[in-house]
Amino acid sequence: MPLTHAEGRDGRWAVLDLSDGTVTEYEIQGSSYEQDYPDDDLRAWRNEGRYQDEPTDRTLPVTEYFKRLGDKFRQLEWVGFWRDNSYPSLWVGYDFSHDNEGVETAEMRKILKNHGWPDTFDRQVCKQALTEYVNRDTERRQRERLQS
Fold it and tell me: In 3D, which of 88, 95, 101 has the Cα closest to residue 141?
């Protein structure tokens, strides 16, 4: 049962397996390199949807999975944000140092910290600041595309 829906071709799905009470992160663009489960196992679907460099603990018990999610947000490894007239989005802690996305992620983390993350967090004011930043950045990207 899907818990999340990936945004675009690079996103991940979190899939709840009711047969054993686990959550597996499934990546649409992923490809299997080793089978963890035989083809006749009900969990064989987990063999697909991951990249070679992904950790083998991508399937976790539900409680551990959600604890890790909370840790990723508290440590700002993952950063949630909004765009006008859009669904909430998520930056994950990839190394974007080769392009502008590293700068953008760092700026969003800075905005969150400036608004008290995590202990004295002012959600509404921070949401507005993040929305304004993301919208300015989106406009900048559109201008750059038009110029190239």
Answer: 101
